Structures are given as C-alpha cells and as structure tokens.
Amino acid sequence: MTFDSFFQNLANGISLGSLYALIAIGYTMVYGILRLINFAHGDLVMLGSYFAFYGVSMFFLPWWAAFIFAVGVTAGVGVVMEKVAYRPLREFPRINLFTAAVAVSFLLENLAIVIFGGRPKAFSRPPFMDKMLNIGSITFVSYTPIIIAVSLVLFVGLILIINHTKAGTAMRALSKDIETTGLMGVNTNKTIMFAFLLGSCLAAVGGILWAIKFPQINPLMGVMPGLKAFVAAVLGGIGNVGGAMIGGLLLGIVEIMLVAFFPSLSGYRDAFSFAILILLLLFRPTGIMGEVQPEKV
Question: How far apart are CA 228 and CA 115, in angstroms?
C-alpha cells in the first residue's frame, strides 16, 4: 500500500467510523440511564433516511429542509416509542424492556416494508456532496469530509448539552441513581424522554449521512449499522458518550484498513467486527472507557 493510498483509506475509515459513532451515541445514552439496549435504534436510522427521501421526492422540499424534516419526524417517533413501549415497562425486570425493544424493532421494519415498499430506492445526494476532491495525489468524494465535520460538530454540541445544561446534569444524575434523582425533584420522565429525543436526532442524522455515503435505502438498511454501532458502543465502553465516539471511529478505521491491507478478507469484514465484540467481552467487558456499574433491577 502506498502512502497516498493509506491516507485515502484512513479518510474513508474515519468517515465510516463517524457514522458508527453517531448511531452508537444513541445506544449509549439510553443504556446509561435505563440499562436498556434499544435494538430499535438502528431502525430509527432507516426511518431518518426514508423521511429525507420522501421529503425531497414527494413533498419537493429543498434538500436541507428535507433533512431537517426527517430529523424532526424521527425524533418524534423516538419520543413516542419511549412513551408507549418502554415507559410502562420501566418498573418491570430488564428482560421485559429488552423484549419490548426487539418487538419495536421488528414492528418498525415490517411497517416500513408495508408503507415504503420492500424494493430498494436510490437516494439522491445533494450536488455539492457528489464532487471529487483532490488534496495532492489523494482523491475522495466531497461527502467524506462533510460526514466527518458534521459528526464532530454534533458530538461537541452533545458534550456541551450533557455537561453545561440542566437537562444534561439531570441525565448524568439519572445514570448514577434514577430512584434517588427522582426523589430529589428531577422529572425522570421528561429527562429520559429528552435522552431519547437526542438519541433519535443523532440516529436520523446518521441515517441521512449513511444514505449519502451508500445511496440506496431499504426497510432493513438499519439492521447492520445498528449492530455495528452496538459493537462500537461496547468497544468504547457502553454508557460513556466519549467512549462511543472513540469506539465508532476505531471500528470504522479497522474495517476499512482490514479490506485495504487484506483484500481477500473483504467478505469477512462484518464477521471481523463481531469477533472484536466477542474478544472484548471476554477480555475487557467494560470497553475502553467504560466503568463497572451495578445492574439496575
């Protein structure tokens, strides 16, 4: 591999890893508060891309308005999902919430097949995201730096919200002790709903950027990115937002570099990601930045 090829693949890996990170942050925020692995989160990625697609093709919105529309509607779906499917089960054993998450995931996928159709659809990129850029002898598509920049801006914004707002302080308190925090006057329902709102917004943005990078959408498109984001969240330390970002970037870079250095193993890139998950659970179950936390019942 040449020097230029290495940096070109590195840029592609960071771009892919940024998408994993955006989706993984939603996983990790919900887990940090409820100890719930929301397996329906990947389907919010799918919904975000479809809402953006129909915002342009059916409602004839400009691409930027369609993207805002998609993020808003997906956030609404996430809030309804929390209120209807998860909140009534919050006082029951964790297995009930986990089962509900799996059921919601299948429900969203099958509703998408019925409503949107099972046939894949071509997602049109905005023209400025479909240009070839050259930096020296390195060539990449213009959406690559855009994906990285958007992910970085959203991550910084999320960190500011978590660390410098009342809602963020409440989220951090709930992640430590939800019962005691509620007794101290924090509205737990609103705080948890806010966490789902933020996570759903990030999932929608991740879905739109995923469709821009891989411009074909279908009702099951969120399954694999969702699972990969889960691996990234565990890799970084599930429950830790910074860890989710690091885990996503590492997973994306490793995947792309594996294919670049060993092209014959390109068909095993997904298997390699899940092998990382197994090894991580065996040797460092808390991940890179995770902490051992008591299980909530």
Answer: 26
